[in-house]
């Protein structure tokens, strides 16, 4: 049995071992199984991270997300990440690699106080960025209004309450880069320009969605994917994303 | 363990504790898991309520529907709801909020004697309301005929039997409002104008479907979603929703 | 406990009680759960029947197919059905109704020696019949060729082997009738006109598929649904169903 | 009980009996269940093979893939296959037939050192080959670039690392033949012409995808199916598969 080895102090196995289903090391694999069945993390794409106070739990790179186990989770201390080039992990699973999404997740945690950040490769997200790219103006902002599901989003950073039915949901789009960590700067710039957004689309790539809690990040990710799919279907049917309903 | 607390008389825990899978407090979570997998209650959207004689069981607001538990269920007595502004609950789960759909569910129970009412945010329902909005006339009525699945609906309130193949299924559409409870008046007006309907579409929002029993409400909701999806695909293929087949 | 009653000789409960997963009374509910998840038997639509020598097992009318149990199964003796107007059942579950599909299933068993017949309301099947209805000629025959999945069909009644890649699969379409049992005559006529077909489409309704065994009926139903879906997508993309590849 | 017979040395039952979930005879059925739910192996179509050193494990022909068991697996020794016309099996399940895909799987193992090869009938793959067939030039190569999911592929045979975001993924298309084993020659020719490809599309049929390991073959198959689906949706929306982004 490997368990005595695996449970040694060396790899800080205790950080990811818990009988509590709500423990981040148990929640991340459960979420990833769900996301795989939704087509969000196909073929090792996408990822998920949960922050619990100063501890950050991260899905690794390159694993089949529907098969992920608690043992595969990376852990780091947010306050100890002084140099983005030298990431320090409390726990690194042997024979795995940390996710390239790590600096992007950390941006959501440090700049927005997020408790969870979800990255999907949802085709609906990608198609929305392609449709925006193809139109003459305003290529870097997805806008939709007057759809009930918009209420699934909070008003914004450190604000109370949810968006209203007539509010326009605005999700900024950043351009993709060959290396995922190079997205960090433009993701942070998008957060600065749209301080109340809970998501950033990445052109031809997917979307990052976050929230104060796992519950909020996950339900906002679902609501957003719903709106992306609806937007693509609306386009097929010649229906506009914005409308003037008072 | 919280169970002794949770089982105390104070919160009327006995109302939602049963070993019977058919008990409303067990059925609602099971239905919601199914509805989540169908895309009907994405991101905390939608809801479900079951009436058992004078007791009404309600899914709460803002929960992840596929994770709902019996403990999350609200209970009220239908005959005791004298003032819609002052809802009185027999059981209110701590740290949850009652659903904004409550007055709409109650309308189905009181005006139509329904035993179950289901509210979905199905994209097919939303797309049908958008397609209707975009056409010159008759924007407030979805009509389809000569499709076998139409037989999945009862003839109407206090009538025996099901619709026939050649009958036209008519589902009224009401306009959405910023606050869901404000839909009550127009929902009730639609019930009055179309007394035999078992469903009302809400523009850019979703649909309310009911039935005398859980079985009928659920199978009518499925049949309706099937017809909405079919109608959207028919539109993509240039096929009309109404036809003259004798 | 009801089990002693339910197991009495009166209702021939022994006919549907078996520990063998391959027993028709266990297989039909398992198949129906699968078909429900495929969208084939939404809202009590569709049905399935298995013949074991002279005994025919039938799903009842009006049940939620994903919740069906062995106890819900009807049983009749094929050789004893002298008068189609007076169906004689060996076993009739209390408080259920026999399926209106029964005479159609029996036609597959008696005219084609089928061991299993599946009836779906698949939207792809319905859309194919609508697309055919809308075209100038040949409205009553679905034809497709040069698709590998066509090999999923046998060559025909009492013939050895499967269709080839270049063979044209032909599925006749009959017109729907208000009462499902009234389809029997035209279904039998279609069987006579296309003696090698394993399926008949019903306009605006769905499809009947059969096979010598459960395995063949089920895999042919899957292959056919695959081809219907492919045909609809081909139409959306302007691709023809028939092509000249030698 | 058949188990003593089934476990006899005669049929080399020990080759497919293991408590290890990672054993090929356990993995293949698990993968096939997953592939069935993805629509890749509908109606007995498609197949999967895993190579462990010199032993090759193969799903049989004509079975319902979601119901496959370890007992159904064929085993052969790769180094002993001198004559493709006379396949020698270490283990042949009684009353099953070997897959016609066998020579194609073997090509991936011998010519590319693959550890796993997956064959799907995915409709997205078929539609991509139909769309290519219908265009004036370059009918035998699927090309897409500037989509993040392209990183899900290795650079090629005996090369380190993955494709980059700006790289163009190229998948050759071969013409289908009436007998699947007759595809072998053109599949091998496509491998020679595109030595770095991990997949070959078969017109009007599906796709073969492989990888050094089960993990790589499976995640590449998922990434490819994602891209095929995206490509079909892009075509519906008038979006080109290739773009000039620097």
UniProtKB/TrEMBL annotation, chains A, B, C, D:
<protein>
    <recommendedName>
        <fullName>Methylthioribulose-1-phosphate dehydratase</fullName>
        <ecNumber>4.2.1.109</ecNumber>
    </recommendedName>
</protein>
<comment type="function">
    <text>Catalyzes the dehydration of methylthioribulose-1-phosphate (MTRu-1-P) into 2,3-diketo-5-methylthiopentyl-1-phosphate (DK-MTP-1-P).</text>
</comment>
<keyword id="KW-0028">Amino-acid biosynthesis</keyword>
<feature type="binding site">
    <location>
        <position position="205"/>
    </location>
    <ligand>
        <name>Zn(2+)</name>
    </ligand>
</feature>
<dbReference type="InterPro" id="IPR036409">
    <property type="entry name" value="Aldolase_II/adducin_N_sf"/>
</dbReference>
<keyword id="KW-0486">Methionine biosynthesis</keyword>
<feature type="binding site">
    <location>
        <position position="101"/>
    </location>
    <ligand>
        <name>substrate</name>
    </ligand>
</feature>
<feature type="region of interest" description="Disordered">
    <location>
        <begin position="1"/>
        <end position="20"/>
    </location>
</feature>
<keyword id="KW-0479">Metal-binding</keyword>
<dbReference type="InterPro" id="IPR017714">
    <property type="entry name" value="MethylthioRu-1-P_deHdtase_MtnB"/>
</dbReference>
<feature type="compositionally biased region" description="Basic and acidic residues">
    <location>
        <begin position="10"/>
        <end position="20"/>
    </location>
</feature>
<dbReference type="GO" id="GO:0046570">
    <property type="term" value="F:methylthioribulose 1-phosphate dehydratase activity"/>
</dbReference>
<feature type="binding site">
    <location>
        <position position="119"/>
    </location>
    <ligand>
        <name>Zn(2+)</name>
    </ligand>
</feature>
<comment type="similarity">
    <text>Belongs to the aldolase class II family. MtnB subfamily.</text>
</comment>
<keyword id="KW-0963">Cytoplasm</keyword>
<dbReference type="GO" id="GO:0008270">
    <property type="term" value="F:zinc ion binding"/>
</dbReference>
<comment type="pathway">
    <text>Amino-acid biosynthesis; L-methionine biosynthesis via salvage pathway; L-methionine from S-methyl-5-thio-alpha-D-ribose 1-phosphate: step 2/6.</text>
</comment>
<keyword id="KW-0456">Lyase</keyword>
<feature type="domain" description="Class II aldolase/adducin N-terminal">
    <location>
        <begin position="26"/>
        <end position="232"/>
    </location>
</feature>
<dbReference type="InterPro" id="IPR027514">
    <property type="entry name" value="Salvage_MtnB_euk"/>
</dbReference>
<feature type="binding site">
    <location>
        <position position="121"/>
    </location>
    <ligand>
        <name>Zn(2+)</name>
    </ligand>
</feature>
<dbReference type="Pfam" id="PF00596">
    <property type="entry name" value="Aldolase_II"/>
</dbReference>
<feature type="active site" description="Proton donor/acceptor">
    <location>
        <position position="148"/>
    </location>
</feature>
<keyword id="KW-0862">Zinc</keyword>
<dbReference type="GO" id="GO:0005737">
    <property type="term" value="C:cytoplasm"/>
</dbReference>
<dbReference type="GO" id="GO:0019509">
    <property type="term" value="P:L-methionine salvage from methylthioadenosine"/>
</dbReference>
<dbReference type="InterPro" id="IPR001303">
    <property type="entry name" value="Aldolase_II/adducin_N"/>
</dbReference>
């Amino acid at each position: 049995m490997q368990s005595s080895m695996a449970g040694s102090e060396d790899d800080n196995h205790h950080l990811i071992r818990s009988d509590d289903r709500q423990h981040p090391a148990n929640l991340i694999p459960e979420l990833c199984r769900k996301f795989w069945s939704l087509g969000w993390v196909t073929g090792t794409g996408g990822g998920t991270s949960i922050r619990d106070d100063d501890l950050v739990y991260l899905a690794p790179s390159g694993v089949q997300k529907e098969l992920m186990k608690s043992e595969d989770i990376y852990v780091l201390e947010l306050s100890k990440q002084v140099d983005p080039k030298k990431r320090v992990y409390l726990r690194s699973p042997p024979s795995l690699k940390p996710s390239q999404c790590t600096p992007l997740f950390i941006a959501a945690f440090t700049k927005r106080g997020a408790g969870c950040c979800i990255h999907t490769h949802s085709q609906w997200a990608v198609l929305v960025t392609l449709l925006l790219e193809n139109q003459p103006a305003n290529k870097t902002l997805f806008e939709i209004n007057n759809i009930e599901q918009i209420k699934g989003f909070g008003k914004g950073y450190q604000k109370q309450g949810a968006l209203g039915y007539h509010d326009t949901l605005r999700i900024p789009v950043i351009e993709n880069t060959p290396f995922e960590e190079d997205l960090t700067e433009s993701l942070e710039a998008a957060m600065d320009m749209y301080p109340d957004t809970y998501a950033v689309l990445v052109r031809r790539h997917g979307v990052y969605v976050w929230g104060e809690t796992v519950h909020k990040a996950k339900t906002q990710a679902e609501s957003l994917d719903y709106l992306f799919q609806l937007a693509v279907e609306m386009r097929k049917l010649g229906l506009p994303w914005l409308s003037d309903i008072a």
